[in-house]
Design goal:
magnesium; myristate; 6 helices; single chain; GTP-binding
């Protein structure tokens, strides 16, 4: 299924927990993607576990979400859902600064704009502030005819071009009914833990020199 991090790929539970600065501090996550990809629908499905009819986001929405499954159960995520219209995309950089993780939502049926989504994703991830920030790609609208699967979305977005050090996972999803969202959040949590562990071990090694 396309992601570079699998369910069991982040080490043992104890080391994962040790890697986090505090279980009481919410993890900061930014939700990005082109307009009409389903970001706000995904946010409020995660928040309330129900479908809310949404309008295009002008600016941002911010909600605290609790993980409900696996290792991230009970963990708080502060999720910033930022508008995806072209005129709003320059603002993305302000929201991604010092974030713990990025959720990039893609309309899996919108093949005409997949190159545009790729350009915006790569531009965001290659910003120095976002160096190696874990990425969860929600391959959304899987319920619709013609939706690309996770492997096709991964290829279309050029995620392998980011290099072996970049942690990412592509999660098939349907935000309207909630399919894939909890699993995706769990994968993002594990990638964040792995990244913090790598950063911490690198910091220790630099001190020994």
């Amino acid at each position: 299924m396309g992601g570079s991090v699998g369910k069991g790929g982040s080490g043992k539970g104890g080391s994962l927990l040790d890697a986090l600065p505090s279980l009481n501090s919410p993890l900061h996550v930014v939700m990005l993607g082109l307009d009409s990809a389903g970001k706000t629908t995904a946010l409020y499905r995660l928040k309330f576990d129900q479908y809310l009819n949404t309008v295009p986001t002008i600016g941002f929405n911010c909600e605290k979400i609790k993980g409900t499954s696996g290792r991230c159960k009970g963990t708080s995520f502060l999720v910033w859902d930022v508008g995806g219209q072209e005129k709003l995309r320059p603002l993305w950089r302000s929201y991604t600064r010092c974030t713990d993780g990025i959720v990039f939502v893609v309309d899996s049926t919108d093949t005409e704009r997949m190159d545009e989504a790729k350009m915006e994703l790569l531009r965001t991830v290659r910003t120095p502030d976002n160096h190696h920030v874990p990425i969860l790609v929600l391959a959304n609208k899987q319920d619709l005819p013609g939706a690309k699967d996770a492997t096709q979305v991964e290829k279309s977005l050029g995620l392998r071009e980011l290099g072996p050090a970049q942690l990412f996972h592509v999660q098939p999803s349907c935000a309207i009914i909630g399919d894939g969202l909890a699993d995706g959040l769990e994968c993002l949590y594990e990638m964040i833990c792995k990244r913090k562990k790598i950063s911490r071990s690198g910091h220790k090694n630099s001190k020994r020199r």
